[in-house]
Specification:
By secondary structure, the protein is mainly alpha-helical. The chain contains 12 helices and 2 strands. The termini are far apart.
Length: 326
């Protein structure tokens, strides 16, 4: 009886250990072609919906790049940015830093099409990554394969949103990227990738135009003709907050012109201009400005690495990207 009791106890321990092994968060192994069997037309469906949207609005690539970046930098690339707030929880999308993130409806449209084709197979997190890839290509950027197999997160809190600021120094931005496992080189490349077709509202740079750091004068590191142009755009109406392109030359084209612009002191945001002036990053900026192919190839490596940021097994395949499953 005693031996039988001991054996029974050991069996219980083994079962508990086995259960824990399967419930502890595990890093997901992402792979290219993850949906080849479960939803073979998934990537084509996503591409077609993005193409249709791009025909109407050429700014979609910038919006999706921003969404992808803002999602990955909080809880990893788990589509937590898509979850709507409730009376009990303010979600990430309602944090101040995410106020300019858009194209949630486009993600909804893609999800609806995928659910018709293969219900509960494709994660919202993978939709963001794949849609961003397709949008970059439509804007003239590189074409690349995206490893997939992400799961959708179960948590989204506005209080957790802590993104690199528009006025950060290079060192401050580097610390933010380093905390996500990304190096200085990847930081310079990803900022260029997001800003080459991005825009900024006046409230993010207006202090550079008139009274920079309490000097009573514009930021001397900004080209004075650009200062005059932006003063005319932003004006003095506190209720107006227009936007301008971060690359004033090839604004809708995904290329390396952003780096040429900031080398000419035409960076709109302070962090952009800092990249060209700080010894930590200035040489990288010069190299990227000189070779568009190098920029494209470097961007692919950097965004794939960013897209792999995870915090364990995120959880589920959402039926609706705006809410967790119940």
């Amino acid at each position: 009886m005693k031996m039988a009791s001991i054996q029974k106890h050991l069996n219980v321990i083994s079962l508990v250990s086995l259960f824990l092994c399967f419930t502890l968060p595990l890093k997901l192994a992402l792979q290219v072609g993850f949906y080849a069997k479960s939803c073979p037309n998934a990537e084509n469906i996503i591409r077609q919906v993005v193409q249709q949207r791009f025909k109407i609005d050429r700014s979609v690539p910038a919006a999706l790049l921003r969404m992808h970046f803002h999602d990955c930098f909080v809880r990893g690339c788990d589509a937590s940015i898509l979850i709507d707030s409730t009376t009990k929880n303010q979600a990430e999308k309602d944090a101040g830093a995410n106020g300019s993130v858009r194209e949630y409806t486009l993600i909804d449209q893609i999800k609806t099409a995928l659910e018709r084709a293969c219900p509960q197979k494709v994660s919202c997190a993978d939709i963001i990554a794949l849609a961003t890839r397709d949008a970059v290509a439509l804007a003239g950027g590189p074409k690349y394969n995206v490893p997939t197999g992400r799961r959708d997160g179960l948590i989204s809190r506005a209080s957790e949103v802590n993104l690199p600021g528009s006025s950060f120094t290079v060192s401050q931005a580097q610390q933010s990227f380093s905390a996500r496992g990304l190096g200085l080189n990847e930081m310079v490349i990803l900022l260029g990738g997001g800003h080459t077709i991005g825009v900024a509202h006046c409230n993010f740079f207006q202090n550079r135009l008139t009274n920079f750091q309490g000097t009573g004068a514009p930021d001397r590191t900004m080209d004075q003709a650009l200062v005059s142009k932006l003063k005319g755009l932003c004006g003095s109406n506190p209720n107006a907050n227009p936007s301008t392109f971060l690359d004033q030359n090839t604004s809708f084209v995904f290329d390396n012109e952003y780096y040429n612009q900031i080398r000419k002191n035409k960076g709109i945001l302070k962090i952009d201009q800092n990249l060209a002036l700080d010894p930590l990053s200035a040489k990288m900026v010069s190299n990227l400005a000189a070779n568009n192919n190098n920029f494209g190839q470097s961007f692919v490596k950097a965004i794939i690495k960013m897209g792999s940021i995870q915090q364990g097994n995120a959880g589920e395949i959402r039926d609706n990207c705006r809410t967790i499953n119940y």
